[in-house]
Amino acid sequence: MREIDRYLDRFRFKEKGIEDRKIYSEVLDLRTLKTLYKLSAKGYIRALGGVISTGKEANVFYADGHYECHSVPMAVKIYRIETSEFYRMDEYLFGDRRFDLRRVSKKDIIFVWTEKEFRNLERAYEHGVNVPKPFVYQKNVILMEFLGENEIPAPTLSDLGYDLKELVDIEAFFNEVIQNIKRLYEAELIHADLSEYNIVLFKGKPYLIDMGQSVLKDHPYAMDYLKRDIKNVLRFFSKFNIKADVESLFKEMTG
Questions:
Q1: Active-site choice (20, 108, 159, 193)
Q2: Residues linked to residue 66 through DSSP beta bridges, in sequence order
Q3: 63, 149, 197, 222: which has the highest count of C-beta atoms within 10 A?
Q4: Candidate list 210, 218, 224, 229, residue with the active-site label
Q5: What's the rounded Cα separation, in Å, for the pair 143 and 238?
Q6: Cα→Cα distances 218→21, 39, 45, 181, Å
Q7: Annotation marks residue 90 as catalytic
Q8: Nearest Cα to 229, choosing from 169, 187, 182?
């Protein structure tokens, strides 16, 4: 704990986020703090801010960042190195031709998962899918575009619920979600866990987040995942009387 405190002393915390230092010390291990310190030393992280979200597999924090000579608000996604939840993610890793898991130890699988999410975001972003722009990754940490304003994260569709209809044209917004799934497919990717919990409303548009489990379309279960994604989206929008057919949208996307 003393060594963790020494690393925390080296970081610059935003005034608003000083109280979050305790959270950092509780949820981050020494290896992760060293990784954050290296990213800070390289100039990517100028100041650590507050907590955006916490979960069993990852925590996300706000940061004042710097990338390509510009100051940018960043989301710092940190996968927990010690977690028992990743056994559920095996099916999304095995079958991905981008990674040779025969040479990866169990303790390093989290680093493969982090790289996988970064590469998925990079591919999606390059193909015009509304996702947070990925900046850099190292070990179990990804720095990406912060979706939100004044350090407050953009709400998910789950957060908004029925209030969504007061903020957007529902039919047009639904069509944008479908177009983003299509563009993702054209990038040869399937989100594989899409629902109202990982679609956010940012600047009036839908953005897809949490793409660690996303797979290439030649993955053995890719088409099953795509159908499930479509079904989840239709289930959410059905409460707004949006009617569409899973099979028809699936055929339209896959040709």
A1: 193
A2: 71
A3: 63
A4: 210
A5: 35
A6: 43, 34, 36, 16
A7: no
A8: 182
Distances (CA, A) of 242 to 119, 167, 170, 232, 254: 33, 16, 8, 13, 22
What secondary structure, in 3-state letters, does 96-145 show?
Answer: CCCCCHHHCCHHHHHHHHHHHHHHHHHHHHHCCCCCCCEEEEECCEEEEE
Helix (H, G, I), strand (E, B) or coil at 169: coil
Q: What pLDDT is recorded for position 98?
A: 84
Token pair, residue 251, equals 């055929």
2-22 confidence digits (pLDDT tens): 777 777 777 777 766 666 677
What is the Cα–Cα distance from 28 to 66, expressed in whole angstroms? 22
The terminus-to-terminus CA distance of the chain in angstroms comes to 56
CA distance 19 to 6: 17
Q: What is the pLDDT of residues 207-246, one digit of tens each?
A: 999 999 999 999 999 999 999 999 999 999 999 999 999 9
The gap from C-alpha 27 to its chain's centroid, in whole angstroms, comes to: 18
Both tokens assigned to 160: 């908004």
Instruction: For residue 193, indicate whether it is catalytic.
Output: yes
Handedness of CA 89, 160, 75, 202 (dihedral sign): positive
Average pLDDT of the chain, as a whole number: 90
Is residue 154 within 8 Å of 207, Cβ to Cβ? yes
